[in-house]
Amino acid sequence: MTDRLRAIEGLALVAALTDVFDGVHALGDQFVQNSHDATTKAMHGSQLAYKNDGSPVEENPWRHGKEDRTCTASAYGRRSVSRHVVSLGVPRVERPGKVMTAQLSDAPHWGACARQVLRTVPAVARVAQMGGGSMMSIDQATTLARFGAVWGVLAVGHNLADHVFGQSDYQAANKGAPTAEEVSAGASAQCGWAACLAHVTQHHLALATLIALVWLFIPLPLSVTGLFAGFAWSAGRHAVLDRRWPVRWLLRHTGSPNFAELRSA
User: Fold this and answer.
1) Residue 50: beta bridge partners?
2) Going by C-beta distance under 8 Å and a sequence separation of 6 or more, which residues neighbour residue 158?
3) Which residues pair with 48 in a beta bridge?
4) What residues have CB less than 8 Å from 163, skipping those under 6 apart?
5) Residue partners of 45: CB distance under 8 A and separation at least 6
């Protein structure tokens, strides 16, 4: 029986830690990574680029001094990848870079991510403190298993709800708040709320349906009060973030102004 509980403990801990690192990865990619590294980490080839900013030598072959040091595009791309990988939690100085051609994706569940991470940290810390072969209690294992299962369902559900079932083309194109320039040109600051709220409603109906279907096969001990509170928090936070101006503000103030200005194609 002890071996069985050990196996359950290990699986629960792996699931919880995987989910936490999944959230941290999204945080690192979209808020910690600076615009310059995001635009240059894919550089490759034998053509020469300047070491200080990655710009092609052929565009400006007349630099002098330290600014004229060069490397291959592939070498510069590897440097950008390395900076990005180690940048989580490290203060950055934003460097000018070309705006990459990409889409500004919908903001992920940052509120839910932070809440789940904070709820899991005490359990993970408790496991780390255990010594001498001690085993976590069944309640602790259940908490970690529930966390891992619900996170997995919500992660899959988020993608399905945003890209398949829970958002129309019209909602995706019109849910954001108008820019300052558009408001100055006469647009209402409240424009887009109807599309935003319709999307958020459909999104969370899809999530609720998926959780209910999974619960039929994996009857985890879920609290009805907790589910309602979590969905209320998620819906409110989702609606605010999908207006997009809070995400752009945060990106501008965390060193990624170029990324903040990207628009959906």
Assistant:
1) 70
2) 108, 109, 207
3) 72
4) none
5) 72, 73, 74
Q: Which residues pair with 71 in a beta bridge?
A: 49
Sign of CA dihedral 40, 45, 51, 57: negative
Residues 31/90, Cβ–Cβ less than 8 Å: no
Identity of residue 107: A
pLDDT along the chain (265 residues), means of 10: 66 69 68 76 88 85 76 89 69 38 37 46 49 62 77 84 87 87 86 93 92 84 86 91 84 71 57
Residue 42 carries which DSSP code? T
Scan for tokens 């710009």, then name that residue: 55
**Angle (nearest 5°) at CA 234 between 233 and 237:** 85
Domain limits, the chain: 2-33+108-260, 35-85
Question: Are 6 and 135 spatial neighbours (Cβ–Cβ below 8 Å)?
Answer: yes
* Separation between Cα atoms, residue 4 and residue 102, nearest integer Å: 48
Q: Which two tokens stand for residue 222?
A: 């879920």
Rounded distance, CA 177 to CA 154, Å? 26
CA atoms within 13 A on the CB side of 85: 7
